[in-house]
Amino acid sequence: MSAYSEFLLRMGDNTLILGHRVSEWCGHAPVIEEDIALANTALDLIGQTQMWLGLAAEVEGKGRTADDLAMLRDAWDFRNVLMVEKPNGDFGQTLMRQFLFDAFHLEMLKGLTTSSEPRVAEIAAKAVKEVQYHVERSGDTVIGLGDGTAESHARMQDALNFMWPYVGEMFASDDVDAEMLSTGIAPDLTQLRIAFDAHVGAVMADATLTIPDSTFAHKGGKSGFQHTEHLGHILTQMQWLQRAYPGASW
Amino acid sequence: MKPEITQIWDWLDQVPDPEIPVISVVDLGIVRGVAWDGDTLEVALTPTYSGCPATSVISMDIETAMIDRGIEKTRIKTQISPPWTTDWLSDKGRAKLEDYGIAPPRTAGGPAHCPRCKSENLDRISQFGSTPCKAQWRCLDCLEPFDYFKCI
Q1: A3-244 in CATH: which number?
Q2: What would the pLDDT profile of B21-32 be if each residue is shown by its tens digit?
Q3: pLDDT tens for residues B97-130?
């Protein structure tokens, strides 16, 4: 598979798996406004998935569709970062994961709007507007809960401690990222990390939360080398209908 | 004889948005172009939000509306660039939204006033609403909640 195809899968699998995770809250959130917000965020992410995986399927040129890639690949073919497959935990953990991913996603999409691949730039220009909106809400909620009650503060600090080791993978450059950078398709992850750290640092300061003093990073998701045990469980739920009734449609 | 393009635009302006039926798909600003390709009518649509489920319904509604007017072949072309913006909502559409009880989008980032009582004493309930394009606000004078069409 070409580096470009790998990169498109990374973008589409991140939004697909996170979109599915967030959709698990539908009907279960603490208040209706949050339920609606989570469902809308999930919907945007699934919509972006259709564009990324649609393009990935086209570039692959084997006649597969975005749906085929989403519903008929197995865990080892997925290229999402490990963070997005982590279980939702409590509401605070879900929103912490959302904020950390949104902050990365926003910088990545901003960089992609000037991609040397016009199709990538078009998708990014569309998605960045939605993600700007996502990060406003997830950032506000992290601040509200972090700088909230003793209970909410403690849960948000736990969530940050739990999620932090999954941040590094998003910025760890490998051969695919290096080729995307040299061909001008995607931005420099080192530069993204600087913007990410500034944004996340400011929000965590407002939220009175302490960023763990560790650079340790779990890896293996975006390379497909080793996903967490959670991805297979997500797929059994997400893909069962297409697996049980191949080709079923509305 | 093929209908004139201006005639087609008039017909499209009679196709309602499935979720906000007081405005048409033309008011919504998602029809980016109409052209004949031989005997096939090509309509270029720009989706509002990536995951908005109304988008596929709109494509079907447009095809049905064209068949009703005798156009057998319609091809819907999705055009994502430049991305849709609420700046493309027509003035007619904005007025209709307000009459319907949905505050129209403003670059200032919030509704100008309550669509019911026109009070400017407002409070945001949630950044998200019943559809991807809306947020929930409430009026602190008449106390009614209302939808605000998000500005993007």
Answers
A1: 1.20.1260.10
A2: 999 999 999 999
A3: 999 999 999 987 899 999 999 999 999 999 898 8
Write phi, then psi, for B40 (nearest 5 degrees).
-110, 130
Q: How far is CA B43 from CA A15, A213, B56, in A?
A: 29, 55, 13
Q: Give helix A3-23 / helix A91-112 axis angle, nearest 10°.
A: 150
Number of H helices, E strands in chain A: 10, 0
Are B128 and A122 within 8 A, CB to CB?
A: no
Question: Which residues in chain B have their CB less than 8 angstroms from residue A45's CB?
Answer: 51
Query: What ranges do the domains of chain A cover?
Result: 3-244
List domains and CATH numbers for chain B: 5-86 (3.30.300.130), 101-149 (no CATH)
Pair of tokens at residue A166 = 């999954």
Predicted complex ipTM exceeds 0.85: yes
CA Rg, chain B, in Å?
Answer: 17
Which residues of A fall within a CB distance of 8 Å from B86? none
**pLDDT of res. A98:** 98
A76: closest CA of chain B, how far (Å): 26
Q: Which tokens sit at B29?
A: 């600003």
Strand order, beta sheet including B31-37 = B31-37, B40-45, B74-78
Q: What is the 3-state secondary structure (H, E, C) of B67-92?
A: HHCCCCCEEEEECCCCCCCHHHCCHH
A70-80 tens-digit pLDDT = 999 999 999 99
pLDDT in tens, A107-138: 999 999 999 999 999 999 999 999 999 999 99
